[in-house]
Structures are given as C-alpha cells and as structure tokens.
UniProtKB/TrEMBL annotation:
Highest taxon, organism lineage: Bacteria
Transposase IS66 zinc-finger binding domain sequence ranges: 102-145
Domain spans labelled Transposase TnpC homeodomain: 21-94
Protein name from the UniProt record: IS66 family transposase
InterPro entries noted in UniProt: Transposase-related (IPR052344), Transposase_IS66_central (IPR004291), Transposase_TnpC_homeodom (IPR024463), Znf_dom_IS66 (IPR024474)
Compositional bias segments (type: Basic residues): 74-83
NCBIfam families attached to this UniProt entry: transpos_IS66 (NF033517)
Region annotated Disordered, chain positions: 58-88
Compositionally biased residues, Acidic residues: 58-67
Organism in which the protein naturally occurs: Sulfidibacter corallicola
Pfam families according to UniProt: DDE_Tnp_IS66, LZ_Tnp_IS66, zf-IS66
Residue ranges annotated for the Transposase IS66 central domain, each copy included: 166-362
Length: 365
C-alpha cells in the first residue's frame, strides 16, 4: 500500500505526540513517587565540568558503560561533636564538693585540691510577670498656695509615653503578643492559654485590639522603611498565599496574598516589608514600584512581566525556577543514566551548580 505525504506527516506527528506523552507520564511519575527535592544528585558524579570550559562540554562522552569495581570495608562512625554554649550567656556556678570527712586521707593527712572537672547545662528561666507601678509625686506650695506661681497650684511630672494610651499593656507584654503572633505564628487563642499558665487573664479579643493599635502607631515607621527601600539599587519581591478567616465578602477557603519586599543598603540592616492583598494581581507590584529605578529580582510568575517594559528597571530572574525546568527535563527523558550520553539539560545544571558555588564563596567574603 502506497503512503502519501499526508500519511507520512501524520505518522511523524503521532510519533512526536507519543514521545511527548511518554515523557510527560514519566515526569508525573517522578513527581508523584520520586524525591521532591531538586538535588544535584540527578547529575552523575563525574559530570561536573568547569564553568568556563565550553570545549569540554561540547565534546561527546563515550557511550560505553564504564567498568565498575565493588570495594567493601568497615568504617567507624565518628561521633557528632556538640556545639559549645555561647559565651555571652551568663553563668551561675553550682559547687558539688565532697563531704568534709572525705577530704581527710586514711593516713590522717588532709587531701589537697589539685583541680576540678566542669560541665555545663543550658537552662531556661520561665517568663517573669511583674507590674510596673508608675508613681508621680504631686507638689504644692503651702506658703502662697500657688497664687504667685505661673505653673499652677499643683506641680506633677507628665505621664510617661505609652504605645497604647490608657492601656494596662506594658512594652514587654505588647512585644510578647506581637512576636508570638507574627514572628512565631502562634494564634491568639493559643497565646491566651499560654498567658493563663502565667496567671495573666487576657482574652484573644483584647490581644487583637492591641495588635491593631500597635500597627497603627507603627505606620510612620513603615512609611520610612518604604521610602528607604525604594531608594535602594536592588530589591527582591515575592508573593505568598495566606488564608484570612472572617474576611468580608470572602470565604475562609479562598486565598489571599502577602507581598514581601526585601532589600539592604550597603552600610545598613536588611529591610523587609510585608503587605496584604486580597488577590495575586500584579496591581500591587505595579503601584509599589511605580517610581522605582534599579534592579528588581523576582520569580517566574507571569504577573512580573510588566517589569520588562518599565523604563529604569532591570528585571532579574530566579535561577531556582530556571533550574527546575532542566531538572524536570532530566526526569522526563531519563538521560544520563547507565553510561548514556549526557544531555544538554545536564550541562546546564552543571553550569548553574558552578554558579551556586561561586555565589556561596562570595557570600562568605
């Protein structure tokens, strides 16, 4: 039976489609049943070329499987070395001495102290609750009863500044509530029980109100941090999903997003800003970076595509996301195992691995 050109083309298309489906099936199996981490072990151990040695990368590797030799031996497993307790922690010495009668030898002579053995334990003192009682003495003149004074009849020192005026919350308690919620991710209802064990009766409703008032007082600080971040030559931006319970016009199962902006001046501490957004729309990033000039580092989310068109902004991609595609290619094609020729994806991963090594060395400088 004679085949036409259209038949040959159809067969070729079906073969390509079949190959793609097999690779897709292999990749899905690897993701479902294989390791979840993108380890460098997907590369063969001897396929780590030099970063700049392009000629070696272009050369084909032999197809023959290398001979293997199995060597067995017994190795003594080394003991893990415990890290010393940092010196900046205060020390409290506890003396464990022998009884007085044991300090006398059987010959009748008194034993001499020739040394000592020491060991250290790390202990934690539970939180201490105290009440700060502010006392402001009042003063008055009994002679003229204040008639000749411009300060009034009674003189008293001004009330101390407070984060929340007329509140019983001291700075330490407020810091504990805010840190537990937003740094340690402890819900208010759990923190309520924790404080109850210390004898503090504090409802989660009050803690929520405190957090809201502290946030409002910190708005000028956040504005200053934002101005500082926008003046930096380099910024990182990312978004992460978060669920907000009881949000108006949204079900508890729907996702909202926290947008994180991070940067660091050359001679100052790192700046991290988190902003809430009900959606993943790029409108937030467009608004925040509307007047920014510099380098912006992000992942491959399509919402950051507008950065390519903004004058004055250089958009930097994420190597981790780029690397993932080549790692998935290796999983899908199964090349590079059993002595087979290394694929281009292996070579790209070798390049990226070398870049990671140079970056690690640069961070240590």
């Amino acid at each position: 039976m004679k085949q036409t050109r259209s038949d040959v083309a159809k067969v070729a298309d079906l073969e390509i489609e079949n190959k793609l489906l097999r690779e897709e099936n292999r990749l899905l199996k690897a993701k479902l049943f294989g390791r979840s981490s993108e380890s460098k072990k997907t590369l063969s151990q001897d396929s780590q070329p030099s970063l700049f040695c392009v000629a070696e990368l272009e050369a084909d590797e032999p197809d023959e499987a290398s001979s293997e030799e199995t060597v067995t031996y017994t190795r003594r497993k080394p003991r893990g070395k415990r890290k010393p307790i940092p010196d900046h922690f205060p020390r409290r010495e506890v003396l464990h001495d022998v009884a007085e009668e044991d300090k006398v030898c059987a010959c009748g002579a008194e034993r001499t102290r020739i040394g000592e053995e020491t060991s250290e334990q790390l202990d934690l003192i539970p939180a201490k609750v105290e009440v700060i009682r502010h006392v402001r003495p009042k003063y008055a003149c009994r002679s003229c009863e204040g008639l000749e004074s411009t300060d009034g009849t009674v003189v008293i020192a001004p009330a101390p500044e407070s984060m929340i005026p007329k509140s019983l919350a001291g700075p330490g308690l407020l810091a504990d509530v805010i840190t537990a919620k937003f740094a340690d991710a402890i819900p208010f209802y759990r923190h309520e029980k924790r404080l109850a064990r210390l004898g503090i009766e504090l409802s989660r409703t009050v803690m929520f109100q405190w957090a809201e008032k502290v946030a409002n007082r910190c708005r000028p600080l956040v504005a200053l941090m934002k101005r500082t971040a926008l003046s930096l030559p380099y910024l990182q931006i990312d978004e992460t999903p978060v669920r907000v319970h009881g949000e108006e016009d949204k079900a508890n199962t729907t996702q909202s997003y926290m947008w994180e902006i991070r940067g660091a001046p050359p001679d100052g501490p790192q700046i991290m800003l988190d902003f809430y957004s009900p959606t993943r729309s790029a409108d937030f990033a467009k608004t925040f970076l509307s007047e920014y000039q510099g380098l912006v580092h992000s992942d491959a989310y399509s919402g950051y595509g507008f950065l390519e068109k903004v004058p004055g902004i250089v958009h930097l991609g994420c190597w981790a996301h780029a690397r993932r595609k080549f790692s998935e290619t290796i999983l899908a094609t199964k090349k590079g195992k059993g002595g087979k020729k290394q694929s281009k994806a292996h070579r790209v991963l070798s390049y990226i691995g070398k870049l990671y090594q140079h970056e690690k060395k640069a961070d240590a400088v």
